Amino acid sequence: MRVSVFGLGYVGCVSAACLASMGHEVIGVDVNQTKVDLVNDGKAPVVEERIGELVAEVVRTGALRATADVREAITGSEISLVCVGTPSEPNGSLCTTYLERVCEDIGAALAEGARQGGRHTVVFRSTMLPGTCLNLLVPILEKYVGGTAGVDWSELGVAVNPEFLREGTSVRDFFDPPKTVIGELDPASGDAVAALYDGLPGEVFRVPVPTAEAIKYADNAFHGLKIGFANELGAVCHALGVDSHQVMDVFLSDRKLNVSPAYLRPGFAFGGSCLPKDLRSLVHAAQRADVSVPILAHVLPSNADHLQRAVELVERTGKRRVGVFGLSFKPGTDDLRESPLVELAERLFGKGYDLKIYDANVSLSRLIGANREYIETRLPHLAQLLADSVDEVLEHAEVCLVGTRDEAVLSALPHGDGTVIVDLIRLPDAEARRAEPGYMGLAW
User: Fold this and answer.
1) CB atoms < 10 A from the CB of 430, how many?
2) Lower CB density within 10 Å: C or N end of the chain?
3) Which residues are annotated as active site (predicted)?
4) What is the CATH number of domain 2-219?
5) Residue 6: left if φ>0, alpha if ψ -120 to 50, beta else—which one?
6) CATH topology of domain 302-441
């Protein structure tokens, strides 16, 4: 394919050189003439493993050249990769100035008839927040090119294709990616991007444009969280005289719960007899050892904030009769200790809501020991609130809070009768329910 790459920094230079080495005809574009001259001289404008030799080779064979002329680049290509920087503003917000400028330049070139016939696809590799492409960049292109993207554009495609390149190993990462993500405005746009990487390993995900934008942030936030978690745990272990690397070796050997998809699906708050108390104990031990652990110290406050979001969803409805499905902290158990659903019921009851609660695994007459003591302390009116059946709750409720996957509950939930459904677990039919005005999802 004939490809133009806008921005010859780390991402752009690596993308241009690697694509050229795959047999594509690539034009690098940059406003910095020094970078353009370096590439045309067969020299990489960035320091990176293997990139120097790769640039020299593909320039020598004529597969890669560079220019500062946008019109020349658009004329000579059928697909444009936008790899310009998106730095932080002083307040932490995303700077989109360079993205906007490139879209204006590309749009102007396309409007001047720089295309040599056929479809031209603009692909954004730059990291940008969800909504940036459709709400900011596409309108800029529409202004120059005319028409409405995805409706009456037959000659212009748009896609978002985030990169997963680590500085220092970016050439290796390009040829052996963990995944390829294509956020497509339409199937033809996605097809063009997929063809660009044909032959590379790894799973390909073709998703809506905002999903592709969000994935890069999910990756980087989690990577930062993992590093911060390991370092904080290491500091606590050191203060307590424990070999942190031995601890993490055992931790990492668990591929069922620790290094796995477990606990990584958005849903409701956590609770139970272990997680809250162990986090408190660990943070307290760190404080006694004078070790600052801001990540660990904020896990429980973060959990409490998520629970409060559920309260706010109910408040937003303006209705007072509430049914709660699920009470124990985890499905398949009657353990109510530090259950977030108990906490949720307690907060709503304290705010004057008229509650009915159903949990097939919880019966006040069977609660004994610590479980009974806990519920008598936290929600002493539980006996009056518990219902004997799903139907009893449904007959009472204007708002149904669903915190269980009990099939008897799921099959009985109403559709389109005016009952508000507050989904805490992401119901199996959540996608269909999202079109219903009464559906509110905490786990979207």
Assistant:
1) 15
2) C
3) 274
4) 3.40.50.720
5) beta
6) Rossmann fold (3.40.50)
Question: Shortest CA distance to 14 belongs to which of 127, 169, 160?
Answer: 169
Catalytic residue among 18, 95, 103, 274: 274
- 112 pLDDT above the threshold of 70: yes
Helix (H/G/I), strand (E/B), else coil: 323: strand
pTM of the model: 0.89
Residue ranges at the known binding site for GDP-alpha-D-mannuronate: 167, 216, 220, 223, 231, 263, 265, 268, 271, 330
Which residue intervals of the chain bear CATH 3.40.50.720?
2-219, 302-441
Token pair belonging to 29: 């574009």
How would residue 189 be classed by pLDDT, with cut points 50, 70 and 90? very high
d(CA 329, CA 332): 9
Is the Cβ–Cβ distance between 40 and 59 less than 8 Å?
Answer: yes
- List, for residues 147-165, the tens digit of each pLDDT value: 777 676 778 999 999 999 9
State residue 82 phi and psi, 5-degree precision. Answer: -100, 115
Catalytic-residue membership of 13: no
Binding site for NAD(+), residues? 10-11, 30, 35, 86, 127, 277, 337
Which backbone phi and psi does 386 adopt, to 5 degrees?
Answer: -70, 135
* Residue located via tokens 């997680």: 275
Element (H, E) at 420: strand 420-423
pLDDT digits (tens, 9 = 90+) for 280-321: 999 999 999 999 999 999 999 999 999 999 999 999 999 999
Q: How far is CA 126 from CA 10, 62, 145, 163, 396, in A?
A: 11, 26, 22, 8, 51
